[in-house]
Amino acid sequence: MTWNMNQIDRRRFLRGSGIALAMPLFGSLATSIARGAEPQSNPKRLGCFYFPDGVPMPLPEDPAYNEWAWFPHGNGSEFTFTKCMEPLESVKDDLTVLSGFSHPKSRSVHGHNNADQFLTAALTGGGDKEYVNTISLDQEYAKHVGDQTRFASLVMSTDGGTGTARGTHTISFDHHGRPIPAEHRPKQIFDKLFVKSDGDSARRLALSRSALDEMLDDAERLRRSLSSADQHSLDEYLDSVRQAEIKVEKAKRWLGAPLPSVDGSQLNLELSTDEPREYLQTMFDLIYLAFKTDSTRVATYQIGRENGVGRSDHLARAVGFNTAHQLSHETKNPDGWKNFGIYCRFLNEEYGRFIGKLRDTPEPAGTGSMLDNTLLLYGSASSAFHLSRNYPIILSGGKQMGFRHGQYINHAGMNFQGGPWLGNGEPWQDEAKGEDVPLSNLYATMLQRLGVPTESFADSTGLIENV
């Protein structure tokens, strides 16, 4: 078929090609074996999870400190969880809690601006500052392993889409720093992973390939009549087209491969945040199934959007509160720390359940458990009220990659900022009491252990040796 590019609405084409490219991409490790490829033992996976609004940070002299502080008490292998963190006790030997880590470029920025840079360490700024982002940790790893699975990565959030600058609904950003839209509807995620596409996929892929070829030819002719500035804009557009080319070629390779057999009968795929606990469990279960079937080895899930905007703020209804964000503002009230801690405990319950499920599942195509071969990052880009320092971070899994757990790396010690907001200045505006370690040092360490040949990531200054 001959396409007349003058008759194609480009925005409509991109929407159409997006459907054509996405529909055939389903599968598992078994599909590569079916094509005669050698099975690979111990695949290395990466999962990154973000929760908003910081954590309970009562000061040591506050009676709530012993029960509801998010960070454990102690250091090294000698540490104890508070009531806020008790749900993680059963997986304590499989995780490391870290304090005193943050991104240098964001330490003087309001905490609600920071989800955008959690996995990038970029200068996304605040207020009137220019917004510039870079590639996220997960996508850096996806460049390394994305061709080995049907999906290079799985990007999820409770709110879906991309959101806005400094109000992102996704923590995944491509190599140009552009946000990657997140999926939020459980049924669509399940269908994308495990439901067979229609028989017309091959024809639509062929049409997409043809249209892409003609679009590139058309663009090269157009270039000769453009100014230098317009040529730069065209180059950015063409990069997106070339990325679509890569997806088309990958889709063609997987087109005839059989889908994994997955029993979804135990999943309620029609639910929403109106059933917050079940919704969160289902989103974690979908990542578990995607990893177990080797449909992807990279996943992100933004549990909530910053600043109490969107459906994710309703997750607090699982434990009897109306909205989650408001809890972080009410810690000065009676039982304020307790209420905020109860909500964080709920998140830890469901995250701990996910970790335990990976730990209790033998590696389908190798040795050890799935958790031993899966590296998980869980945290937020603020700690105390709107404070962009001392991020609450938990690293878990990856024992077959050399990670040691059952420890609290308490870099902040007792030299931390916290306390309730009393209506005056906020902690993020105060002078820092200590010097945080660049969180990118941890990211560089993670990438290296995952098998990426690198010594650095973003603004890292070294590696973390004691994990």
Automatic annotation (TrEMBL):
Transmembrane segments: none annotated. Residues 1-36 form the signal peptide. Keywords: Signal. The keyword RNA-binding does not apply. The keyword Lyase does not apply. This is Secreted protein containing DUF1552. It comes from Stieleria varia.
